[in-house]
Amino acid sequence: MSIKEQITDILVDAIEKLGFEKEGLSVTFSNRPELCDYQSNFAMILAKKVGQKPIELAEKIVEQTKNDQNFEFFAVLPGFINIKIKDSTLSQFCKDTFLDKNLGVKQVEKPRLVFFDYGGANVAKELHVGHLRSPIVGEALKRLHLVLGDKTLADVHLGDYGLQMGLTLLQLKEDGFLDKFFEKTEKNADFSNISLENVTLDVLNDEYPKASKRKEEDTEFKQQADLFTLYIQQKKEPYFTIYKKIRQLSVSEIQKNYALLNCGFDFYLGESDAESYIDQTVKIFVDKHLARESEGALVVDVAREGEHVPIPKKSEDEPQRYKNPMPPAIIKKYNGGDLYATTDIATILMRNKDYMPDEIVYVTDNRQGQHFEQVFRCCKMAGLSPENQKLTHIAFGTMNGQDGKPFKTRSGGVVRLKEVVGLLIDKASEKLSANGIVGDSELARKIGVAAMKFGDLSNTVEKDYVFDIDKFLSFDGKTGPYIQYTIARINSILTKANFEKNVQKCGKNCSFLIQTKEERNIALAILKLISAYQVCYDAYSLNALCTAVFDLASAFSTFYNNQKILSEPNEEKRHQLLCLCLLVKACLEKALWTLGIDSVEKM
Predict the structure, then answer these.
(1) Which one, of 553, 552, 545, 555, lies nearest residue 595 by Cα?
(2) How far apart are CA 120 and CA 157, in angstroms?
(3) Cα 268 from Cα 255, distance rounded (Å)
(4) Which one of 92, 339, 468, 469 has the largest count of C-beta atoms within 10 Å of its C-beta?
(5) Contact, 533 vs 547, CB < 8 A?
(6) What's the pLDDT at 320?
(7) Are 255 and 146 in contact (CB under 8 A)?
C-alpha cells in the first residue's frame, strides 16, 4: 500500500468514527512543503454540509489520528489537515522501494494490450524536423505503459500507398530514371531483376518536392499522378515493382534514423499492408447502408446532430470558435482510388483481426485531429472497433525555432531529421571536450538525444515549444544532460567507494536511515517521482515525469553538496548514504528509460 493510500485510510477511519461520510475526501502533495508533506481540504468541504466551522472539524478529525506511528496530522486555518511523514516511515519507504522490482511504481490492476501507432514516416520522403515529435512522444508513451504493466505493440505505419508515391514515380519516369522498366512491353514481363539505376535517397529527396510543387500548378500532371497512385494500389506493373524497390530503399534509411532516437517498433508496416482489407472494409459500409455516393466518390456521414467542430485556440485567452459540422469521411475517390481514411479504417480492421488490442493510440500532429475523429467514428458506426475498445489520438504541437515559427533552415527550408541529430551530437561533443572527454561519438549521441527528448517531453504534449539547443544541452538546469550528469556523478561515488552499482545485486544488504533535511527531500522526491508515472499515464503526456525526475536530481545535488559521503567516519552511516545514492541512481535510470533516454557512465 502506498503512503498516500495509508494516509487516506487513516483519515477515512477518523471521519467514520465521527459519524461522517468520506465522500469528497482527497489527499494531495502539499503546496507548502516547508510546512508539511501532504494535505487535505476535506474538513472545509464537510463543514459546509454539516454546518460546523472548518477549523473545528479539522481538529476533531486530527484528534482521532493522534496515536498514529507513521504520520503526524495537524489542523491549520482555515481548516486544512496537514500531514507530515515521520523519518522512520520514510526510511522504511526507501527500503521497500529499493527491494521492489518496479521501484515502487504501482502496476495497473487490469493489464491491457495497447497498440501504438507513431512514427508516420512517408516512403520516398526523407525524415525532417517535423517527424521528430511523433517518435519521441510515441516511444515514451509506449514505454510508460510497459512500466505500469501493460503489454504493448508498436507500428511505425509508413505512408507508403498515397499520392506521394504516384507523384514520385511519375517524376522519376519523366526525368528518365525508369526507362528500363517501361522499355518492356510484354504482357507478363519480369521487372524484379531491373535495378533502380542512379536512384538514391538524395535523388528521391529531390524528385518528390519537385513533383509536389508541380502538382499545384499542372492539373494534367496531378491527374496523371493520381492514375499512377491507382496503378500502384491495383498492383499493376511495372508500377508496383518500382514502388516496392523505392519502399525498400526508403525504409532502410528510416530505420537508421529511428534507431538514432532510441525508437523501436514491433512492425514496419504501412498503408499498403492494409490493402487486402480495403474491399472488405468498403463492403461493410455499403452493406450496412452507412455509405452514400457524392460526386462519384463514396462517403460516410459522421456528423452528429447539433454538432459543431471546435477550432483549435491559438492561446488560452482566445474565445472558443466553431466551424461547420464534421464533414463526411471519404472512403473511395471519384476514380476508385483509396484515401488515407480508407487505409486507416482498414488498418484498424486488420489490427483487430490479428490482435484485438484494448486500445489503439495514434500519435500525430494536431492538424490530423479531424481526420482521426472521422476514422474513429466510422469504425464505431460500422462495428469495426468493438464498443469496449478505446481509440485515442494524441495530438502534439509544433516544434518551433527561436522566432516562434516552425523550425527551418536559415534559408527557410525544411531541416532534415539527421541534420538536427547531427547538430545536437556536434554540440554535445564540444561540451564533452570541455570536460576532457574527446572522440566518444556514442556518448555524444546519447547526450544529444537526451537533450532533444527531454526538452520536448518536458512540455505538455499538445503545446508548441521552442527548440533551444543551448538550453536543452546545458549540464545544469531542467535538462536531459543534467539528469545524465547526476547519474554519472553517482557512478563516480559508487566506484570510489567500491560499492555495488546494481540494485538487484545489492539486494537485502541495503539499509536506510532518513534523518537530515537533505535525506528527507530525496525520499520525498522519490515519492513524488513514483506518483508521476500514474499522472502521465492518465494524461498521455510525460511532462510530469520530467519535472519529477529533475526534482529528484536537484535534491540529490543538494544532498551531495551538503553531506559527506565518502569521508563519513561512521561505517554504518556511510553504508546507508551509499544505499541512498544507489536508490536515487536506480530511480533516475528508470525514469530516463521511460522517456527513451540512455543513461551514461561518465560525462
Answers:
(1) 545
(2) 5
(3) 9
(4) 339
(5) no
(6) 79
(7) no
The pLDDT of residue 185 is: 67
Residue 162 has, within 13 A of its CA and on its CB side, a CA count of: 20
Residue 467 · residue 399 · CB < 8 Å? yes
Tell me the per-residue pLDDT of 100-120, one tens digit each, with 9 for 90 and over: 999 999 999 999 999 999 998
CATH number for the 417-595 domain, one of 3.20.20.150, 1.10.10.60, 3.90.190.20, 1.10.730.10? Answer: 1.10.730.10
Alpha carbons 27 and 40: distance in angstroms, whole number: 5
Q: Please give the single-letter amino acid code of residue 501.
A: K
Give the other-Cβ count within 10 Å of 101's Cβ.
Answer: 7
Which residue, among 118, 117, 109, 107, has the nearest Cα to 145 in the 3D structure? 107
Q: pTM for this structure? A: 0.90
CB neighbour burial string for 397-435, b if at least 16 within 10 angstroms, e if fewer: bbbbeeeeeebeeeeeeebbbbebbeebbebbbebbeee
Res 245: pLDDT: 92
- DSSP per-residue codes, 334-345: TTS---HHHHHH
| For the chain, domain boundaries | 3-85, 163-260, 417-595
* pLDDT digit string, tens, across residues 513-560: 999 999 999 999 999 999 999 999 999 999 999 999 999 999 999 999
Q: Does domain 3-85 have CATH number 2.60.20.10?
A: no
d(CA 588, CA 557): 13
User: What angle (nearest 5°) sits at the alpha carbon of residue 364, between those of residues 359 and 367?
Assistant: 125
Handedness of CA 126, 129, 133, 139 (dihedral sign): positive
Instruction: For residue range 179-237, list pLDDT tens digits in order.
Output: 989 887 666 778 888 888 788 888 988 898 899 999 999 999 999 999 999 899 888 99
Residue 176: exposure state from Cβ atoms within 10 A (0-12, 13-18, ≥19): exposed
- What is the phi/psi pair of residue 592, to 5°? -65, -45
Q: Which residue has the cell 554535445?
A: 428
Compute the distance between CA of residue 423 and CA of residue 405 in angstroms, rounded to an integer.
19
Which of 593, 590, 568, 592 is CA-nearest to residue 579? 568
